[in-house]
Design goal:
By secondary structure, this protein is of the alpha/beta class. The protein is about 30% helix and about 20% strand. The protein has helices spanning about 50-60, 80-90, 90-95, 120-130, 140-155, 180-185, 215-220, 245-250, 275-285, 305-320; strands at about 1-5, 20, 25, 45, 70, 105, 135, 165, 190-195, 205-210, 230-235, 240, 260-265, 290-295, 335. A 7-stranded mixed sheet has the order 4-1-5-6-8-7-12, covered by helices on one side. The termini are far apart. The model is unreliable at about 325-330 and about 335-338 (pLDDT under 50).
Length: about 350
């Protein structure tokens, strides 16, 4: 594991390396596990993304049996390595028959931190995804993240692919993302997670909200959640390859369903919407209308004001729960898609 501040974690969440302030010596607990059967190395890398990701890509090709991970300080910082991503990571299999399995951990989420600390540019990776050349995931629980990495390690020899993970920021300490020990020890990776509450009353559901990532916790934490028994919220954890079979099973689990809504916190021209819209249209086959709720198109990934972000985020969540939606121009887009 290498990257920008990975030893402590950008958000002080990892503490993988302890430093003795008196002697300067370091201690890495994961290197001292008596039952460990694999090596573990962790190194901070400089803020030179193009060079660092290029090095890790080459190392990954030379050591295909090792789980090689690079983490950005913020997801936006991957912009500095775009040339390596375009020329090597996403296209090397098609051009030269190379089989990289490099993992990129890219903190992503709209939390009022501004245009340069919000987006890992999901849309760019989804535009580059074709011919099963990548895996792209946006996890919402600790168990999902754990099983995603375990699956990647298990497939290093049999099905190596680069893995792009949109990792959490504030969710690192959000109790809604907690997982039990049983979920860690006995569970497995779930490409799509249905609404466990709504499945107890499937005939009451009229609107199915589909989303991915942090916006799910904003939706479920809303006070409106308990007052809208006719709304179910399913999260798509695996963006690519598209989990059509798992999602279709969820759609047909609600016999009274009247509409499907995609909710995202990114602008309409960013995030997963432009990628996922044709997939959903093909799946829905006109049975249900498909609508988009989220920020309108923008040239900037996010607002430059924390107060403006908070106001827009509140309106976004309100629109998602409004069963008779009205468009708030220039703030929230809520369009009928046919």
């Amino acid at each position: 594991l290498t990257g920008e501040d990975v030893e402590r974690g950008t958000f002080s969440q990892r503490h993988a390396v302890f430093h003795d302030m008196k002697t300067g010596e370091t201690f890495t607990p994961l290197q001292a596990l008596p039952q460990a059967e694999a090596a573990f190395d962790i190194f901070n890398s400089p803020l030179t993304e193009n060079a660092a990701v290029g090095f890790e890509y080459g190392y990954n090709l030379e050591e295909p049996g090792r789980l090689t991970i690079w983490e950005a300080q913020y997801g936006d910082f991957i912009n500095g390595a775009q040339m390596v991503i375009d020329e090597f990571l996403t296209s090397a299999r098609a051009k030269w028959g190379q089989t990289p399995s490099l993992i990129l951990l890219l903190p992503h989420g709209y939390e009022g931190q501004g245009p340069d600390h919000s987006s890992a540019r999901t849309e760019r990776f989804l535009e580059l995804a074709a011919e099963i050349n990548l895996r792209i995931a946006n996890c919402t629980t600790a168990a999902q993240y754990f099983h995603l990495l375990r699956r990647q390690a298990a497939l290093l020899q049999t099905d190596p692919l680069p893995l792009i993970v949109l990792t959490p920021k504030s969710l690192l300490r959000n109790p809604l993302t907690n997982s039990s020990l049983r979920e860690l020890s006995e569970g497995g990776w779930q490409p799509v997670i249905d609404d466990s509450q709504a499945r107890c009353r499937p005939r009451a559901v009229r609107r199915l909200i589909l989303c991915s990532g942090k916006v799910y916790t904003d939706l479920t934490a809303s006070a409106l959640r308990g007052a809208r028994a006719s709304i179910a919220i399913a999260r798509i954890e695996q963006l690519y390859s598209f989990p059509a079979e798992e999602l279709q099973a969820i759609l047909f689990a609600y016999p009274g369903l009247e509409e499907v809504v995609w909710v995202q916190e990114e602008p309409e021209n960013m995030g997963a919407w432009t990628y996922i819209q044709p997939h959903l249209h093909e799946m829905l086959q006109g049975r249900w209308p498909l609508r988009y709720i989220g920020r309108p198109p923008n040239s900037s990934p996010a607002e430059g004001s924390a107060a403006w972000h908070a106001a827009n985020q509140t309106l976004l969540i309100d629109q998602a729960y409004d069963l008779m939606p009205k468009v708030a121009e220039d703030i929230i887009t809520s369009q009928e898609k046919t």
